[in-house]
Amino acid sequence: MDWRASGIVLALLVGLALAAWAVSVVRRDVSLVDSLWSLMFLAATGAYGWLVGIESPRGWLVLALVAAWALRLSAHITLRNHGEGEDRRYQAIRANNEPGFWWKSAYIVFGLQALLAWFIAFPLLMAVAGDAPLGWLDAAGVALWCLGMGFEVVGDAQLARFGARPENAGKVLDTGLWRYTRHPNYFGEFTLWWGYFLLAVAAGGAWTVASPLLMSFLLLRVSGVTLLEKDIGERRPAYADYIRRTNAFFPGPPRSAA
């Protein structure tokens, strides 16, 4: 790891975060940080590769994988949130940090996201700059990435199609991938990041294991499953039965409601 280049990447991410924060102050909506999140990883990977040089096919492969994932996810979130106003999660954070949330959000929301993205991106930085020849670990990493990307894309598409039908208002999606896991998109994100890690291991970056572990923790216990399901039962009474029948995260056969 070139720590000087890594420091420049951190400065870049902080700069992007502060620019987005300035826009959020004008709009009074910090939800745009969700659209920025995946793009931070693309910026980090591209900038690091440019600074240290991409010397192997793996580097270009990783850059392409990150670009496909980041651009797709950012576009999906941006289109989904368009015209919806500030997400209720951020409304709660805003309410808990008034007065002065407009400036506190610079570090509570945007600065924190930049720091997390920098740390979680370590496997990407190692993989994009490594010069070891491609091997079976790379193949395994790409296979995991494809599995995760598939769960994300299909799960998001199924949910968008379900939510677009007025007759489904207040109902719970329990078909397709959502029949086997309550959060196929989060499971996909989890799988995808462990795929990135295998690519880093192939490049000599096994020490970056803390990054996918942190991402897994965030998805399971912080900003993912736990946060989303905190009050969903109040908004959708049928969700309690869905919980009894369906695995929270890892896909599995549905259980009997009894």
Output the keywords:
single chain, 258 residues, mainly alpha
Structure description:
The chain has 258 residues and is mainly α. Helices cover 71% and strands 0% of the residues. The chain is built from 12 helices and no strands. The protein has helices at residues 3-27, 32-52, 57-81, 88-96, 101-120, 122-129, 136-163, 184-202, 210-222, 225-228, 232-235, 239-245. Helix 6 (122-129) crosses helix 8 (184-202). It starts with a helix and ends in a 13-residue tail after the last helix. The model has no long low-confidence stretch (mean pLDDT 93).
Helix content: over 70%
Number of helices: 12
From the spread of the alpha carbons, the general shape counts as globular
Count of the domains: 2
| Amino-to-carboxy terminus distance | 53 Å
Got a strand count? 0
Q: Radius of gyration, rounded?
A: 19 Å
Order of helices and strands: HHHHHHHHHHHH
Structural class: mainly alpha
The amount of beta strand, in percent, is under 5%
What summary fits the major beta sheet? none
Would you identify the regions where 5 or more consecutive residues have pLDDT less than 50?
Answer: none
Mean pLDDT: 93
